Amino acid sequence: MRYGQAVRAGAFAGVLGLTLAASPGLGDACCPAPRSGQQVVNADQTVLMIWDAAKGTQHFIRQASFASRGDDFGFIVPSPSQPELAEADPAAFAQLAALTAPEVIRRPAPRAAGGGFGCGSKSNDKSAVGAAPAAVRVLDQKLVAGYLATVLEADSVAVLTDWLKANDFADSPEVAAWAKPYVEQKWKFTALKVAPDATGTATPKSVATVTAKALRITFATKTPLFPYREPDPSAQAKSLAMRSRLLRIYFVAEARYAGSLGAAGAWSGRTAWSGPMTADSRAKLLSTLKLPESTGPAAFHLTEFEDRWAYESAPADVAFARCEAQTPVTREPIVEYVQAARPPDAAGVLPGVAALAIAGLWLARRR
Q1: Measured between alpha carbons, how far is 327 from 275 in angstroms, rounded to an integer?
Q2: How far apart, in whole angstroms, are the C-alpha atoms of residue 63 and residue 317?
Q3: What is the pLDDT of residues 44-63, one digit of tens each?
Q4: Do residues 20 and 79 touch, judged by C-beta distance below 8 A?
Q5: CB-count burial class (<10 Å; 0-12, 13-18, 19+) for 275
Q6: CA 102, chain centre distance (Å)
Q7: What's the CA gap between 244 and 226, in Å, rounded?
Q8: Cα(242)–Cα(24) distance, rounded to whole angstroms?
């Protein structure tokens, strides 16, 4: 997809959820949990991450699109601490896209006929369960951004999967394996359900692309991460005829950052743009998101990543770290050739002058 073309809004880890700050080496960080027999898969994603290193806080804003055959579906998001949930204004994505858009250079049309990743990018280019019976505790429940969101904690994988089954989420062995490391580390889970509206209805025999409203999840974490892992989506993507998807991440911090999969190897995302934001741009972004002026670092640095996110199992989540080199990165400029206005020539002017002269002589003779 060329930059100038429309990009579907999306983010975080789609149907599979929004894993918030999972640690490298853990199980899949995003988990789809549709009703039994339903198929759901992430489509394009666009994410805004605001990282406050001084406070150890990450704001994760997403607007995602999903492909599904079901009439409703859900997904589960683990986080190392209890998250704050709120609806976000999707206009923030348009503001950031304008900041990172390529320069447009207009040149006269010729007379003759005719017409990377991370810091390497070039410039311009724990505890055991107590004696009490294992249980699931609901910490919060609310309607937000078109989701029914339930924040909970579980003492064991068994009671978590029992709760999921009782609330019409998937409770497969794959979900249990995915949840195990998070339960062991006492993480919280946010279970979200989303249903298509008039813009994206679905029937069991058709595939609909549903665009959810922008959702902000704020939580405490030691490391900024994107929930890249998901249970193998290849079979469902093939069934739903989904061949490709684009993940776009706007990462805001105090400096330029890069993403990696840690010991699992290089991430396929590339740095498309990186540079400081002006004070006015920072204030406008926070105002749009209804976040206080004290949010994040005093000066924002924006880095945009693009990833042709394959429909296959990912070995790890994407962890972000500050680059040693802070070289700015911009997109290649777009050159538009403009046809210059032609000056009046003899072929166009002389006949008009002659016509006026003849008309003048004719009027003189009539007088």
Answers
A1: 8
A2: 19
A3: 788 999 999 999 999 999 87
A4: yes
A5: middle
A6: 19
A7: 19
A8: 28
The residue to which tokens 């950031």 are assigned? 96
Give CA angle at 136 (133, 137), nearest 5°. Answer: 110
Q: pTM of this prediction?
A: 0.71
Pairing status of strand 225-226 against strand 31-32: unpaired
For residue 78, what pLDDT band results from cuts at 50, 70 and 90? Answer: confident
The whole-angstrom separation of Cα 41 and Cα 176 is 19
Amino acid making up residue 93: F
Task: Let me know: does 172 contact 127? Beta carbons within 8 Å.
Answer: no
Distance, in Å, from the CA atom of 163 to the CA atom of 176, rounded to the nearest integer, reads 12
Which residues is 136 bridged to in the sheet? 154
What residue type is 58 in one-letter code? Answer: Q
| Mean pLDDT value across residues 315-340 | 89
Task: Looking at mean pLDDT, say which of 12-16, 104-108, 135-139, 350-354 comes out highest.
Answer: 135-139
User: Bigger pLDDT: 16 or 164?
Assistant: 164
